[in-house]
Amino acid sequence: AAPGPPRSRFFQPARATASALAARLDLEAKARAEREEATFKPKLSAKAGLAEERRAAASIHEHLLGKGAEYAARRRARQGELEAAEAAHCTFRPKITDMGAQSLVR
């Protein structure tokens, strides 16, 4: 008998089907794209970029001082609104002279 291909179950001739070849080319293209994108600097999201800008713009101490002033201003405005609403319900409004007002300050 003429010697033919090896008769081992492990030996399988290379069969390049169209789908297998397309899959291999796709994997190679993805790997090439990853290599081209590879840098030593990570890509940051938009939120991370904004946080970085905020951090660079002001220190935490300055940020907290600003927030405290903002809250205090809001609190004063709300207190004024509440006092005005309460005063609108009052029917009695005394007329205080300058002399009477000075005595109240002391």
Characterization of this structure:
This protein is mainly α and 106 residues long. The protein is built from four helices and no strands. The longest helix is centred in the C-terminal third of the chain and has 30 residues. The mean pLDDT is 79.
SSE succession: HHHH
Number of strands: 0
Structural class: mainly alpha
Percentage of residues in DSSP E strands: under 5%
Please render the helix and strand layout as text.
Elements: H1 18-37, H2 46-57, H3 60-89, H4 98-105
Write a compact overview of the structure shown.
By secondary structure, the protein is mainly alpha-helical.
List keywords for this structure.
106 residues, 0% strand
